[in-house]
Amino acid sequence: MEMIERYTRAARWFHWLIAIVFFEMALSGLLIFLPWVPSGTIGMWTRLIHRIGAVFLVGAPAIFMLFAWQRSWDFIKEAFTWGKEDLEWLRAAPGYYFGGDPRMMPPQGYINTGMKLYRISIILGGGVFLITGFIMTFLRGIVPPAVFQWCLVLHDVTFIVAIGMFLLHFQLGVFHPRMDESLLSMFDGKVSGVYAKSHHGKWYDGVNNRDDDNSSE
Amino acid sequence: MSDKAILFNTTRCIACRGCQVACKQWNETDEVIPTEQNSVRSVNRGSYENPPDLSPKTWMTIKFIEKPQGDSIEWFFNRRSCMHCTEAACVEVCPSGALYHNEDGFVTYDKDKCTGCGYCEQYCPFDVPRLDTNIVTGVGKMDKCTLCTTPSLNRLSAGEEPACVNTCPTHALVFGDRDELISEAKTLVTGLQTTGSRVYPKATLYGEQELGGLHVLYVLTDSPGVYGLPENPQFPIAATLQRDVFRPLTKVVWLMVAGGLALNVLIAWFRQRQLSEENSHGND
Question: What backbone torsions phi and psi does residue A214 show, to the nearest 5 degrees?
Fold first, then answer.
């Protein structure tokens, strides 16, 4: 069976590192608001763990950007590059994701419009988490209390959205019957040609042309 | 049981700061006095005020506010400590439930539960709680006036007055039932406004209505602003939003998203099976 590389080894490691740290951050952040969780010393530990997680969550992308700035820039540019086919995707998506005729969906590039929206939410949400978190950690007592208060509100609201987006990501990657190769591809990095063609038609054509060029040399 | 309160009558205060000392003695919040050879190291901050601010080990201070009055100055003395609000933002935002109202209506805390997050410090309309939290690790504790109800140092349960009240030589500080103190304070304010060798037309009672009623009441000779008190202290809007909107909404939103996604999987799975069955029938 024809297999196409979709995620490089570095991308996969990066994905799972971020996944683990995101889970750790979400849990340690959530714990302090659950009244049945023991407070005091354990609450201090969860706050410390939250800070250590923040170092990874900020540091990992920073290092990735440092060593692969071109890919990082493309990652951002790709998310914000929108065209006519994105509007078509938005129109066709509800039918498609509820199990309608897949032929109604216009062919997609390496990432589809939904993935673009997910990336945008990560970039914007990550930015809000980073800025508000930095202010609350290091500038408490230096910035006016009102700034701290609104940082806390923003941090919380962004978290509510982030968990919603994570649930969506988790559902599509693990449970959705249409994304049957999604989870595995994040482990071995490959998708089948059939999957690539049906889910990312434009990307598949591009990869195939490149392969053809290579073989003609 | 009716709420208790402290009444601070500024016209009686001579700023001896006996209350500050008694507070430290009783609550065991001694601080190391910095010394140099043969003397105590002192700093001139341009005021008799000392220490200059509240700290984890200084739960109350007397402020010396100076207003020029002809060739001289007029002093306004103010007691700065926890106001023990009825609508206490610190209690509301405390994630670990360390801060709470006790049966007398005072805002006290279980220090073992405190995680040192500092939300109370940042939401307090009077800037009272103080933390020794490490900025890098986030480990630390908050401290503030407990109105002498700290466990094992609880004067009130032993039938005593708070240490600051007990020691006040001029009875500028009085402890009692809040309702009785309010009527007493109102009489004092009316007296200040109308009678005596000097009348204070702006004399006022502070703390009766503010934030649902403070448990430290102030008889002031001038407007609260002169004493460095916020004229109209507010429960922070951010705390109201958190309490009334975002926190209750969170569970609803997450449950709805999770439910919707689960439903989506079921429908997609079912319809996909239908489609493949139709196709296989078509191929027959």
Answer: -60, -45
By the CB < 8 Å criterion, does A155 face chain B?
Answer: no
Return phi, psi of residue B4, to 5°. -100, 165
Nearest chain B alpha carbon to A40: B113
Can you tell me the distance from the alpha carbon of B246 to that of B179, in angstroms, rounded to the nearest whole number?
A: 36
Q: Is A174 on the interface with B (CB under 8 A)?
A: no
Could A43 and B95 be called an inter-chain contact, meaning their C-beta atoms sit closer than 8 Å?
A: yes
- Contact with chain B for residue A48, Cβ under 8 A: yes
Segment B171-225, tens digit of pLDDT: 999 999 999 999 999 999 999 999 988 999 999 999 999 999 999 999 999 999 9
Domain count, chain A: 1
CB-CB neighbors (< 8 A) of B269 in chain A: 99, 177
Interior/surface letters B234-265, b for 16+ CB within 10 angstroms, e for the rest: ebbebbebbeeebeeebeeeeeebbeebeebb
Q: Which of A55, A98, A165 to mutate to test the interface with B (most CBs of B within 10 A)?
A: A98
User: Which chain B residue is nearest to residue A165, measuring alpha carbons?
Assistant: B257
For residue A44, which amino acid is it?
A: M
Please give the single-letter amino acid code of residue B24: K
pLDDT digits (tens, 9 = 90+) for A172-194: 999 888 888 888 899 999 998 88
Bridge partner list, A111: none
- The minimum CA-CA distance between B254 and chain A, rounded to whole Å, is 6
Tokens (6 digits) for A48: 């410390």
Tell me which chain A residues have a C-beta less than 8 angstroms from the C-beta of B142.
none
Q: How far apart are CA A34 and CA B253, in angstroms?
A: 17
pTM of the entire predicted model: 0.87
- Sort out which chain B residues have CB atoms less than 8 A from A32's CB and list them: 95-96, 115, 117
Mention every residue, 6+ apart, whose C-beta is less than 8 A from residue A119.
Answer: A75, A76, A78, A79, A111
Contacts of A51 in chain B (CB under 8 A): 136-138
Tokens linked to B152: 């094992």
C-alpha to C-alpha distance for A97 and A172, rounded to whole angstroms = 9
Q: What CATH number has the domain bearing residue A138?
A: 1.20.950.20
Question: How far apart, in Å, are the Cα atoms of A207 and each of A3, A79, A210?
Answer: 11, 20, 5
Domain extent, residue A158, equals 3-216
Question: Chain A closest CA to B280's CA: distance in Å?
Answer: 15
CA dist., res. B57 & res. B151, Å (int): 17
Residues of B in contact with A35 (CB under 8 A): 97
